[in-house]
Amino acid sequence: MSDYNLIKNILKVLPLVSLLVFSCPSDLLSNIDKKIVPDNLNNIAYSFAPLVKQAAPAVVNIFTSKAVKRQIPPLFVDPFFRNFFGKSFPNMNRERIERSLGSGVIVKPDGYIVTNYHVIAGADAIKVVLNDRREFSAAVIRQDERSDLAVLKIEPHGNEFPYIEIGNSDDVEVGDLVIAIGNPFGVGQTVTSGIVSALARTKVGISDFNFFIQTDAAINPGNSGGALLSMDGKLAGVNTAIFSRSGGSQGIGFAVPGNMVRTVVFGAERAGKLQRPWLGANIQSVTQEIAQAIGLDRPVGALITELHPNGPANRSGLVVGDVITQIDGHKIYDTESLLFRIATSKVGEKANLSVVRGSVIVPVIFHLETPPEVPARQKTLLKGAQPVSGATVVNLSPAVAEERGLNQLLTGVIIIGIEKGSPAARIGFRPGDIVLQINKTRIVSVLDLIKSTRYNPTSWHLIINRNGQRLTMMLPG
């Protein structure tokens, strides 16, 4: 038997092994729908080089820096010790510069770059270095902590930048070949390859929208914000995190899908806040016990447990007990799947839902709307001799709840900021705390909170909601 026939027979017996070991031929790149295993020597000889040459110039290195003040031990603040040491007393006001690195992808020829939120969070200065070693200062256009994405902008000065088109991540399938490009450990731009190991990973716990592409392409620290490329040369996702016990790649990496990336980039190009549709309902994943109780043959879908009276779910005809199993043809496996699909849909359009109601499948037309800011925020910095002094508060509305990833049916007053050294900080209040009651006054609005703290009682009795837990504080007046 000739060498050629021997190789050909091996490939027929072990098609999956050949898919992992050998790269796709260039004719596959022109037609992504024709996914075949290489079956001859000529196909095996091809490499990823043409694809990398096209995409690599659009993947950038991101360097950030921020000033961090040194922590001063309380003893050293005492004037006695400062006088005792005199001029030799160390300068405790000195700041140190904290630096970090990551990766990013140019997605528009006019200099829009997408990266991870955690790469640039809190940075005072951001420098972008292109593959050709050009350096630019970058401005932050959009920060979206909920999706762990951020959009930066560098000025082209009359030139167009190389860029990677954002692909439709719904076209990605398990087993597809992918390429990861980034700057691992700061060694410089690096290319790795692998396959899509899984889709719709929803139990990762990285961001509010847990819906990730999993890949075994090597991803390491510094790859965050880099490109995950599909074989058509488009951006399948943005590399975000790894599962690792050692800090290095163990073959389990996660990427934010391209459809979420597109939503955030599109929002950054438009003036104002990033607008996402809202469901207007509380939901929970269907467990095996719930499936048996309502007559489903398997635990899939999102069960509606509560409806906002003025929300789109209620106005679309959904009722408590409905189980949403599909949206626009995409299967809904759990609550994370549904929230991702809603968040990546376009405001102003309609979505077609498949709902199990009793033993009947009911079609529902759902209107994709932005959550209303009712009541108005009434942002207020609280002052005076009272426990919540130094806290900045706003009225909770569906819009505020959506922004912060909270239950959209919550009402009341939420703390969004705490001044350092203020009474609220010393007592232990935190951003995200919801003030429910002060003494005997139920707090429904910011006005209620202001009125309840105007007098000086002999003691303070406060009830707050912190991460879903009800906490009680008793403080002297």
Write up what this structure looks like:
Among the domains are: 3-47, no CATH class; 57-153, Thrombin, subunit H (Beta Barrel), CATH 2.40.10.10; 281-367, Roll (Pdz3 Domain); 380-476, Pdz3 Domain. Helix content is 21%, strand content 32%. It has 477 residues and is of the alpha+beta class. It is globular, with a radius of gyration of 27 Å. The longest helix has 12 residues, at 258-269.
Summary of the model, kept short:
It is built from 15 helices and 26 strands.
Keywords:
Thrombin, subunit H, seven-stranded antiparallel beta sheet, Pdz3 Domain, alpha+beta, 477 residues
Top CATH class of the domain at 57-153: Mainly Beta
Number of helices: 15
Shape: globular
CATH superfamily label of the domain at 57-153: Trypsin-like serine proteases
CATH architecture of the domain at 57-153: Beta Barrel
Number of strands: 26
Percent strand: 25-35%
User: How much helicity do the residues have?
Assistant: 10-25%
Q: Major β-sheet, in short?
A: 7 strands, antiparallel
How far apart are the first and last residues' alpha carbons, in Å?
A: 94 Å
Radius of gyration: 27 Å
What spatial order of strands do you see in the largest sheet?
5-4-1-2-3-7-6
CATH fold topology of the domain at 57-153: Thrombin, subunit H
The average pLDDT score comes to 84
- Runs in which pLDDT lies below 50 for 5 or more consecutive residues are 13-26, 28-32
Strand pairing plus helix content: what structural class? alpha+beta
